[in-house]
Design goal:
Length: 306
């Protein structure tokens, strides 16, 4: 069994990591490190350094804090010889992630930059269907209610928290999994609330390697039904991934899919990487976000209160 410690015991740790570890034959939850929360019956420490010092038999850590503090924790874990699972996004900057990949290689341990949406039920079937077809266009619509999904998460509005790109990067992680060749960003516009430091909405104009237009709209002001859709028009028909990649239609016909199992599959992948002595650090989704911040035209919009 791989003894794993969770760092940052917040929403995603409780909702997804704990049940995925409990259901895994490869992992056991051995400790948590969090300032204000813990898992019942599991050794708990206030921070990662204390956890690493007191739990020398830990094999791995899963870093579930906000991205702004992930690099320091990952560095500490790698220095202690632990395998590291990074929640998405893998850090606050691209250069941090490059540093971690290099450090993990030098230490001979596994670094896994996870992208949970790539394990949504319809993504692999969609990838296989798209392969070899001629792309005409892709439209991404990722619109959700920030008050519902990120209540009171101050970090998400701070620099490095990504704002609406926190969910938007999930769409970009699916996009970059669906297409074999790299996507490039051409233009972006970002709307930032007057009282916040990160965007509440964004539009991206991208292009596939073959020249097909790819448009994305991310918006956190959606109330009512939530939208996490990707439409892919090809020379052989229209593919639509909805519900964050968990339902799939081709020319309007629903496709049979396996049950949803994003986090169990992430942990299965982490175990495989550890057994093979490999890392998996794909920064393609994060690079598109960085490009949007680099080149995007920013406008100020209405102040936002939680
Ligand atoms: P969250 O509920 O705010 O939990 C993060 C936890 O990290 C906090 O509860 C806090 O626990 C700890 N923490 C450590 N340093 C912190 C700091 N400087 N500021 C704030 N918290 C700090 O956030 P989350 O929704 O679980 O998201 C965490 C990561 O998972 C993000 O990168 C997010 O993109 C990713 N993720 C989230 C979801 C989702 O649906 N929520 C889905 C997939 C991935 P203590 O106060 O106890 O230390």
């Amino acid at each position: 069994m791989i003894r794993v410690g969770i760092v940052g015991f917040g929403k995603i740790a409780r909702d997804q990591h704990v049940p995925a570890i409990a259901g895994s034959e490869k992992f056991v939850l051995a400790a948590t490190a969090s300032r204000n929360a813990h898992a019942d019956g599991i050794p708990a420490y206030p921070d990662i350094d204390t956890m690493l010092a007191k739990e020398p038999t830990l094999d791995a850590v899963a870093l579930c804090q906000p991205p702004q503090v992930r690099h320091g924790a990952a560095r500490a874990a790698l220095a202690a010889g632990k395998h590291v699972f990074l929640e998405k996004p893998p850090g606050a900057t691209l250069s941090e992630v490059v540093d971690l990949a290099r450090t993990a290689d030098a230490a001979g341990v596994t670094l896994f930059a996870s992208w949970h949406s790539r394990y949504a039920a319809g993504v692999e079937t969609a990838r296989q269907w798209i392969a070899g077809k001629e792309l005409r266009r892709i439209d991404i619509s990722w619109k959700e209610d920030v008050r519902h999904w990120h209540p009171g998460q101050a970090w998400i509005w701070q620099p490095g928290g990504l704002g609406v790109f926190d969910p938007g990067i999930n769409a970009l992680s699916i996009l970059t999994q669906l297409l074999a060749d790299p996507v490039r960003l051409e233009q972006a516009s970002l709307e930032v609330p007057a009282n916040r430091k990160a965007p509440i909405a964004a539009r991206l104009a991208m292009r596939s390697a073959s020249g097909a237009p790819i448009d994305a709209v991310f918006d956190w002001r959606q109330t009512g039904p939530q939208t996490w859709d990707i439409e892919v028009e090809t020379d052989a028909g229209l593919l639509v991934l909805s519900h964050g990649g968990n339902t799939l239609t081709i020319d309007g016909v629903a496709q049979p899919l396996p049950a949803e199992a994003e986090y169990p599959e992430l942990y299965a992948r982490f175990a495989e990487l550890i057994a093979a002595g490999k890392s998996d650090v794909d920064v393609a989704p994060f690079r598109l976000v960085a490009d949007a911040f680099l080149t995007g035209e920013t406008s100020v919009t209405d102040a936002f209160e939680d």
